[in-house]
Amino acid sequence: KNVSVDYVENFVRQNKDWIIRMLEKKKDGPFLALSCNDGDKMTVFGNTYFIKLVIDGQNNVEICGDSLVVHAVKHGLQNRQTTLKNWIKDILEKEVRKLIDKWKEKTGLSCSAVVFKDTKSRWGSCNVVSKKLSFSLRLVTQKRECIDYVVLHELAHTIYKNHDKNFYDFVANYMSDYKRVSKQLKTPIVT
Fold it and tell me: Does residue 26 carry a pLDDT above 60?
């Protein structure tokens, strides 16, 4: 829809404080840089790094100080995006599987399968019939305690279908500060 310059200027003037607050929030992250450009910010397990792109014939990623070094075989967006996405899936899967084992030992709960998807609307989900857990690749941007909560939350769905009192009592029994941790997951990811 076409709008006049006066309308836009008036909108900005009336919403100046809100606009500034939203821009300030974007400075803090967490950041997800799937475009994988040199200098982009990327948050991994709650820590923010600057992407350093290196074209050196390799396909891997490493953390060096405050840099997330993405080694790529050749120039090209698809190559470096694939390299970064594969690395994210690999480190997140290792973390999640470690946490599933931890919670299985503590709660006795298990799942039939674990999958990772690039979802935007949910951190995780559980198919209550098959007990298959799905996790968003975007979970990699969160602190480990948040990932821990999401894993416990989804495992709890293997016995509690809904978010009722029994569900939250179960979660609280194993993670008494789950409310504080779950609030951290509400911070929007900057892409």
Answer: no
